[in-house]
Every structure is written in structure tokens, then in C-alpha cells.
Amino acid sequence: MLLCAQYILPITSEPFQDGAVLVRDGVIRDIGKVDMLKLRYPEEEVADFGLAALMPGLVDLHTHLENSVMRGIVHDVPYTTWILSVAEKSSKMDVSDWYDSAILGGLDALSSGITCVADITVTGAACTATQKLGLRSVIYREVGAMDKRRVDYAMRMAENDIMHWREEVDSSRITIGVAPAAIYTCHPSVFGRVAEFANRENMPVAMHLAGSREENQFVRYGSSPFSVHGMDVKRGYVEIPPWLPTGTSPVRYALNWGAFETSNVLAIHCVHVDEEDVKKLKEYDVAVGVCPRCNAQLGMGVAPVNEFLRAGLRLGLGTDSPAATDSTDMLTEMRLGMLVQRAVDVNEFLDSSTMLEMATMGGARALRLDDKIGSLDVGKRADVIAVDLSSSHQTPTTDPVSAVVNTCTATDVLMTMVDGKLLYEKSRWHVDVEVAKNIARVIEIRGKLRL
User: Fold this and answer.
1) Which of the two residues, 325 and 231, has the higher pLDDT score?
2) Of 442, 444, 333, 384, whose CA–CA distance to 47 is shortest?
């Protein structure tokens, strides 16, 4: 198939006009001017998207697809209230609910131009959903136990799940990893155990890290809604005392317990970090996924993106839980992330091309998938999207990259392709899922959650 559009945004090279991308057998076989490619491949089927941009699929470095059904359920509350409320709502959901919710999240991702998601889950619903929908994904099985006596059991359960998930997915498209749970739900030995397991099984690791003020204060001072004040008192997540304040940052706490002793670690958020933390992240080649909308929505703070870029970290964007942001929209994520950085760091002006690179090639590097995805290069997998640039607020288009980042949202996505398979066209689905049935189930689940 020959994909044609007014603009081509390869990411690894300069954008150009009147271009085309040849896709065969799930791979990008050629790229160039449309007239030349039509002459070269006269028998090829042509799909022309007109005044639009063809670009690599967006890479969502952090999400929880299974929480999609909770969109709009917990609104206008700060982080601690939100996370406890989501936990309470989650107790009302069963196995089929999680699956249908993850399917909804996957459909949202595809319709917003996301072709690869990195998802942290306990239930495994995201694993089944991305396999069913044809999405590319890295699925991390979360594991945590605050009581040291429960760590062995928690690890065994996680390892069993991981081995089972590996058997049920297409390994060329879906990678299974492991994720220690949030620091305030983990005995510190979990971090080292996860790293050992990841090294043994050659799998990636992801972890929420330094995301909120509450977590930062909990680790440093033992003073936050997560702290414990007595043997019989349970507050937040912590079941047992004694949590002893460490006097150090969450990043160095995790480092001291061996969290980075493996070759493929992704740290999510990294909002509350200092200069030494950034140096350590770079020293251990830890990738970072920032989630600007979620951080702003829940009052978590602003990640120092410019510092990460200066340090040369592998860096990308995540949409985080739909229960927080109410949508899975990487295009809006780019724009909001860029504007927030410009507002808080007036010394360095973050531009559109940097944000687009973070949302594509940056995310691919962070997942160590940049040899397969993240750009429109010959030989890479055909994860391609088309974004409409024909609206009145976008024309005349003089800079397509700026137009995509500054003016587009998920509703402007015309087409999403993964591995050369057309999965979404404007208002049309090409997936092995009954979309109407899924929506009906979602409405039913949301009714239960509102009780």
C-alpha cells in the first residue's frame, strides 16, 4: 500500500511535502516524493489522505488501560484523595470488568494515533486487550508487598503471571516486563528482587518514581498521608510499622535498594528530583516517562523536562491513567507539556519538534524499541498514522510539526496502522472486537462504580 499525504514527518529527518510511504508485509519499504513512488510502484494500492501529515505512531510511555472505565468518576481532587478513591472504586470491579475497561482504553489509544503503549497492571487485562486489538505494547506486571514476609509470595505470583502472559501474546508485538509497585506500597527488598528477576529473564522494568509531594515527603521524612504512627494504626497503604524516614530522595532510595541494577529501566514521572537524582538516572541509563497532564490535573508538580534533555536521558511522554486525565490523547499531552515547560522554565524555550520527537522516537528509545518503531525509516515496522491538517485553524499550514503539536487533538487522527495493518480509520474500526458491545458493557460498569 502506498500512503500519501501533503506532509510527511519522518522524525529522524526533515519534514517534506507531497510525499508517500510504501508499506509491504508490515514494514516500511520506501519513502519519498509521491510522484516518484507512484512511478516506481505503478501497481500499488494508493491511500491518499490529502491535507494531512503522515507520521510514525505515537508511543505512550505510561498508561493504565484497565482504568479507562473510571474516566470522570473521580474529579477535581488532589493526588492522595484521587488514588485512594480509585482504589476504592477498583474493589467493585471483577475480571471481566477490567478486560472490558482495557478494551475501551485500547480503542481510545488507536483512535488518538497511539500505536504503542507501556502499561503497568496487576490484572493482566491490558495484556489481553492489546493482543486482541493489534496494538503494540510493553506490559509490566506490577508486584509489591509492604510486609517483608509477603515478598516471596508476591514475587512467585508475579513470576507465574508473567510466564503465562508470555505464552498468550504475539512476542513480535508485545513485550512482557515487571514493575515494582509504588514506594509507599513496597518493602525495599522488592526492588532488588525485581531487578534480579528481570536480569534472569531478560525483561524490562518500569516503576512509578518521585511522582508526588506525598511520596517525596514519605520517603524523606515519614510524614505524609502514607505514614504510620502506631502499631495498630493503618493509614493510606502502609499496613505495618515501622516506616523509618530515610532522609534521601525517592530516586536515591530506589537506587540504594538495587532498583536500577538491570539494563532496561523506565522511571515514570520523576517530578520531585534534584540535580544529583538526574545524574544518577543518567549514570544508570534509566529512561524517564513524563506525564504532564496527569501531574497538572492532580497537583503533583512539574517534571524538569529541560534538565532531562540537557542530561541526555532517554525521554518520552505518557498519558497515565485515564481515571485522572479523562482521555487518552497524546497530541494534547504534547501541547500541554510544552506550554507548562515554557511557563515554568523561561530560560529555555521548549519547541514543537522536541515534543513531537519525545512522543515518537523518544518513547521508542525509552522502551529500547527504536530499532523497530518511532520514525518513518525504511526497514522499520509500519506503525503509521495520518493526522488531519485541513481545519480552518490549521490552514494555511507553513510548519506541519508546529501545526500537529499546537493545534491537533485526538479527533484529528484520520488513520492508525500497526505492523502494516489498518486498525482505525475516521469513525471506522478494523479490529477483532465488537465495539458497540464493549461500549454497552462500559456503560453497565460505570453504573456500578457510581453506586
Assistant:
1) 325
2) 384
Give the single-character DSSP code of 148: G
C-alpha distance across the termini of the chain, in Å: 49
Joined grid coordinates for residue 437 = 458491545
Write out pLDDT tens, residues 46-102: 999 999 999 999 999 999 999 999 998 888 899 989 988 998 999 999 999 999 999
Task: Report the alpha-carbon distance of residue 83 to residue 89 in Å, rounded.
Answer: 10
| CB-CB contact of 266 with 287 (8 Å) | yes
pLDDT in tens, 3-52: 999 999 999 999 999 999 999 999 999 999 999 999 999 999 999 999 99
C-alpha cell belonging to residue 26: 508490515
d(CA 285, CA 372): 20
DSSP conformation class of 300: -
Question: Could you give the C-alpha distances from 436 to 36, 78, 108, 109, 430, in angstroms and in order?
Answer: 42, 34, 14, 17, 13
Grid look-up 508487598 returns 145
- Closest by CA to 292, choosing from 315, 331, 318, is 318
Q: At CB < 8 A and 24+ separation, what contacts does 83-90 make?
A: 84/236, 86/321, 86/323, 89/449
